[in-house]
């Protein structure tokens, strides 16, 4: 997608701080972190939101969540706790329409979320 922010960052056209990359996903530091750890696990494939997933994406989504767990473990938050969340569309606050799994940790995270 030529006008997608995350596609452009993944392509190297816009700078980003990558903390992990493999053949199907990248992990970026969020530019406006909401917790001591706030990273975005992003598939290289352009998928606008959770609503556009198909059964062909099942393995990809599994790899996003397993990477979230690995990041939490690497940063020492796996036992303390962390949150992995997809925001979908307006009322959930989605602002970038390329699927991304937020991983937040390092402070008490309220429930229910605001
Ligand atoms: P959403 O609101 O769509 O769930 O999440 C989008 C996230 O992307 C936000 O947390 C926002 O801070 C982050 N973000 C927006 N623009 C950029 C950018 O240019 N670079 C990075 N690394 N993160 C961004
Ligand atoms: Zn994209």
Explained architecture:
By secondary structure, the chain is α+β, with helices and mostly antiparallel strands. Helices cover 20% and strands 22% of the residues. It is built from 2 helices and 5 strands. The protein has helices spanning 5-10, 58-74; strands at 18-21, 25-29, 37-43, 82-85, 101-105. A 5-stranded antiparallel β-sheet has the order 1-2-3-5-4, covered by helices on one side. A hairpin with a 7-residue loop joins strand 2 (25-29) and strand 3 (37-43). It starts with a helix and ends in a 9-residue tail after the last strand. The model has no long low-confidence stretch (mean pLDDT 97). Bound molecules: guanosine-5'-monophosphate (5GP) and zinc ion.
Question: Structural class from helices and strands?
Answer: alpha+beta
Pattern of helices and strands: HEEEHEE
Poorly predicted residue ranges = none
Q: Mean pLDDT, as a whole number?
A: 97
Distance between the termini: 31 Å
**Helix count from the secondary structure assignment:** 2
User: For this entry, what is the oligomeric state of its chains?
Assistant: single chain
Helix content: 10-25%
Please provide the count of β strands: 5
Highlighted features:
binds zinc ion; 5-stranded antiparallel beta sheet; 2 helices; binds guanosine-5'-monophosphate; alpha+beta; globular; 114 residues
